[in-house]
Amino acid sequence: MRTSICERLGIEFPLFAFSHCRDVVAAVTNAGGFGVLGAIAYSPEQLDTELTWIDGQVGGRPYGVDVLVPGKVDASALDRQAHLMDFVPERHRDFVTHLLSKYGVSAPIQPLTAAADEFGRRVTAAGATGLIDVALKHPIGLIASALGPPPPEMVARAREAGVPVAALVGTVEHARRQVAAGADLIVAQGTEAGGHTGDISTMVLVPQVVDAVAPVPVLAAGGIASGRQMAAAMALGAEGVWCGSVWLTTEEAETSPAVKRKFLAASSLDTVRSRSRTGKPARQLKSAWTEEWDSGQESPGPLGMPLQLLVAEGAMARIGAAAEKGEPGAVELVNYFVGQVVGQLDQVRPAREVVYDMISEFGEAVERLRLLTGSD
Amino acid sequence: MRTSICERLGIEFPLFAFSHCRDVVAAVTNAGGFGVLGAIAYSPEQLDTELTWIDGQVGGRPYGVDVLVPGKVDASALDRQAHLMDFVPERHRDFVTHLLSKYGVSAPIQPLTAAADEFGRRVTAAGATGLIDVALKHPIGLIASALGPPPPEMVARAREAGVPVAALVGTVEHARRQVAAGADLIVAQGTEAGGHTGDISTMVLVPQVVDAVAPVPVLAAGGIASGRQMAAAMALGAEGVWCGSVWLTTEEAETSPAVKRKFLAASSLDTVRSRSRTGKPARQLKSAWTEEWDSGQESPGPLGMPLQLLVAEGAMARIGAAAEKGEPGAVELVNYFVGQVVGQLDQVRPAREVVYDMISEFGEAVERLRLLTGSD
């Protein structure tokens, strides 16, 4: 396809696949799209291993890396001398213990201090820097910042390495700020997306962002998991699309079987924007976890980021393991980030097949429009 | 354009304009679109007057009528022997009195009983029947039901008169139910729309509804106020679009000057889905009214429909009049139903010009897609 972003990045089809799973990233890149590895789950050493593996798979085809850099973090949690978990109030720990007990999750509650510190630091500006250093040692084609404007240091290093910087936004104001901060590519993400989102829908947000930041290219995100939706996004003025949820039910996905089953059964009414997993509003599957935190009588209310993320990740690791063993209470609690398109995901397919189906349906949608308007 | 709905209704361009203003309905119909008059604001006699006026303007071109038929109404309020206002609890009346006083709205609080009864009954199934009777005496091309499945009697009468029935839905499940109830045309409305909406965005909802009710034609609603957005909606599989908000800042619109000024200044972040005006979640401009009802310390919480509608309409009539006089507290309170596209509306234009601009931009968007894909 002839969009500016295809030319700039040297790709056939402007379909960006955000995934925490290296197999998805490689499969999409090899199918003519552009895989972007979410680095949040990795330490710098692990990230290096993952990227080395991808390099071996994609034969020089371009792929990217996404780091989560929040604009605002709880400053008290940034003190490197302290343990992050020490900042989690007693009643929040108690509430998690209560939840696990109420739902009969059998796994023991162990102290999480060291792992939590490591994990929590990664979502700070300082922590992200370590990941960026590793990423730029690999032949990546894009580095993305999922939250807040990219730190000046990240932009400077990417520039030096000749790697374009992409930034996710949910408002026109943020898009302008990101471009001012040096973003080369804006991902305008509607409220229907999985993960951290704003209030404005993709249909409304994308044209406004396109007009506000032109000639900077814009990718559309949120509500896109089919070729028709991709064609719609491009009709709005986007140069391509950024998809996350659609990969979560692919064969390659890291999604645990219990969560995958819940995704396949869910309708588009089964997601909620909740602060219960990260401390910021993030769209995810509704589950007993979101219900208990958001409207449970005993809920102390979620903490900010990164503390809520620590609390939730620690608990979810146990819940996920118990759900895999088939414990019914754990199955009620377990969830994951996903957009409203979850209602469209009803079968497990290889990621490559998803790409090819989207390309094919995209072509049909454009052809249908052409015939409707009689421009032949 | 060659969509099935254009052929069925005999229109050039599948752009449906929902408006409470006869001038907008006539202007859009005369420009090649399809105007639909919202009948909720009228008594049967007034509706007859409005439709007679439209008949005189459109020279036989087709237009439609929309009635608000809620699926569920508070049964206790349906007793024709009682005054609807008698069902409004004292503390809700007191809260309105308090609000008007707090914001210095000068208009006196008068009993609303008779007008409220008349107004409230119109949004019941029985009340809607009177409007439907009147509508079917005019040469209308469509009758629409904005809430809940169309009553069997409405479908039967419309069938007899050869008039297609359209129904607005916010979920796939409701779409299936509407088709089973006899709807000839489904309007799939995303959460970003103004007025009563569900949770699912247009981008996600439309393709699912199209697939679920095929071959019944689907119009897309919510987030559509430009030709690019119309092209996106058609790429999703819609046969046309249903727009409401975009007409509210036209020259012809009935929107009061104070509200129009607020709309022109608003961004897409300035709407909220609130139960404070009708008792059901309806997207509208954020204002002191929505803030006070939804999160004010003294708020008793909104009532159901139609009681909250009575309370709100009675108060808003006074607030609107005071806002027109420039009373600052009234300007803070005043609002109206509008979708997230309000952020795009920044000038007052004739409705005809809006239609022509949408047609023109639609063509450009389709042409851009054609060039991107190289299908030339």
TrEMBL record, chains A, B:
Transmembrane segments: none
Sample GO molecular function, one term: dioxygenase activity
Pfam families membership: NMO
Domain of life: Bacteria
InterPro entries for the chain: Aldolase_TIM, NMO
Keywords for the protein's UniProt record, in alphabetical order: Dioxygenase, Flavoprotein, FMN, Oxidoreductase
Sequence segments annotated as region (Disordered): 275-300
Gene3D superfamilies: Aldolase class I
PANTHER family assigned to the protein according to its UniProt record, in alphabetical order: 2-NITROPROPANE DIOXYGENASE, MONOOXYGENASE RV1533-RELATED
Protein name (database record): NAD(P)H-dependent flavin oxidoreductase YrpB (Nitropropane dioxygenase family)
